[in-house]
Amino acid sequence: MKTYTRDEIYELHKKYTQGAHPERFLDSVWTHSQIVAEIADRICDFLKKTYEVTPNRELVQTGALLHDIGVYKCHDDELNPVQEPGYISHGIEGYKILKKESYPEYLARFPLSHTGTGITTEDIERENFNLELKNYIPVTLEEEIVCYADKFHTKYPAFDTFDKAKSRLEKFDPSKGILMNRFKKKFGIPDVSDLEAKYKDWQEELDHYLTSLSEAKK
Ligand SMILES: [Fe+2]
Question: What's the CA-to-centroid distance between 116 and ligand 1, angstroms?
């Protein structure tokens, strides 16, 4: 299995950040990715402790740090999600970036499969998403862990509870709630309270910056 260091992945983020505030954009996505990696590691702990199951932790960490690499293609200069190609496509954009950068398929799949609880052909038809009609769902244990961990932190930036994340997804389709319940049974609910404290100042500062950007636009 090919491995990538944290520094190598950070360099990839640096390469793809863009817009009028590239450093801030990079900080937002990279810090979110690190938070998701920390949450994903706790889910690995839960699996080990509860079921004596040992996921590939290195793969989980790499996948978590790469999962939102496509986000850089899906925001405008003021760091708002774009209409076209649509924020929903950031997973596919990430897949394309990683393939272009010669990352192996098993890593390129992390961006592809992490959106919501995974995007199905039914979702694409129902919501009229501008995506090729395919299933973009987490398949491996490691993909599922990253997908689920991502639900506990948003790039707005804020931590989310299980219930909040579940109800947000249920607005698309009640079956997403069923999938979230299955994830909960499998992976538990990670305790992120110490992470909330650790990243509180960072979040407030970024929130303030994003608010000032949107106010400057008015
Ligand atoms: Fe994410």
Answer: 10
